[in-house]
Sequence to fold (178 residues):
Amino acid sequence: MIWNLNNKGFTLVELLVSFAIILFLSGLALTNWKGGSQNLALVRAANLVAQDIQKAQEFSLSGKPAACFALAPAGSMLGYGTFFTSSTPSSYIIFANCNIATSYEAGTDQIVETKTLEQGIAVFSVSPSPLSILFVPPAPDVKIEPGNALLGNVILQNSQGKQKTLRVNTKGVIDILQ
Fold:
């Protein structure tokens, strides 16, 4: 068998082309890394907000007691809800409704949790504004205030300007829209 020494290994051109392709693909992946992580943060935040709205609904359905319920006047619209306002864009509130109002009233209603959104995610807008979504047992009836609205919208935005809209209707159905 005769070996031809000229056919062994790779040529310098082949190595340079392979190296250039690897660098190009790595550059594409790294430049999109931050944008991809911010988009995932927006999706996570939208899902977390939807879960927290459902948590308020579950609290209401399960009859979870709140300290203020014992002090509430007869006929009060007791239940749990969530409160959003664009004046506090980095957080929202899960509250126990302790009075006859169907919307969140600071100082009267009991704050169950104050939830903070991930860094780079903010409540861009809400409608109606400020938005209270209240679940009143036993059905639960869903009250979207102010104005006894049929739909409540929360628009979340990341630092790149991309948005996700959460829509809640009077049946308690939560949709996450693009």
